[in-house]
Amino acid sequence: MNPRVLLKGLVLLLSLALFGYFFKSSDLGNSINEAWIDGHIRDQGIEGELTFLAMGALFTAIGLPRQIIAFLAGYAFGLTLGSFFGALAALLGCAMSFAYARLFGRGVLSKRLGARAQRFDAFIHDHPFSMTLLIRLLPVGSNVLTNLAAGISRVRAVPFLAASFVGYLPQTVVFALVGSGVDVAQTMKIGLAVVLFLLSGVLGAYLYHRHRHGLSLDERVDEALGESANR
Fold this sequence. Notes:
Elements: H1 3-25, H2 27-41, H3 45-61, H4 66-77, H5 79-103, H6 106-124, H7 128-137, H8 143-152, H9 157-179, H10 186-211, H11 219-224
């Protein structure tokens, strides 16, 4: 696997950790906290949870990195609930872009994503749940493009969405941990998040290498993971 792939992920992880430290320790962070998180999300019960899910679903549906939503979920709800709500928001965003592509966007999107959708179809056709799970564990690729390609493909919605939720969890836990107020030393928390991120990325790359059986999800993904078109 190309080391730059993991490096880019680590840069995102560490930059969010730095942002979180600044957010919590500065006056600016306190004002944002009072104005938004405390005012609309935290300790607001089901209304705050639904507000967060709606915001997270909308932003991930249009392409905001789901890792940022996971970070914000960890900040708002803590590690356990933050991991759940972060993954659920990403799932809802996935369902929105999937449904849009399937119901309304096939004509337009097929011109731009037709080849990608055909590759996606071929890649997951025999084992839609396990192969979608594999895709979600990869440290590379575009979440929203995968959702749109799946929407114009022939994949069934239930296994795709179920596997997406499970596959979202590892990285969601990592970024929710960074954003949360878990009572451990900051350096230890960041170190643990880095280790979990690396393990998730390496596992995804290994599974892709082991189970793709000569198929290719995307040329750029193959290049990033050091794979050739055929094994």
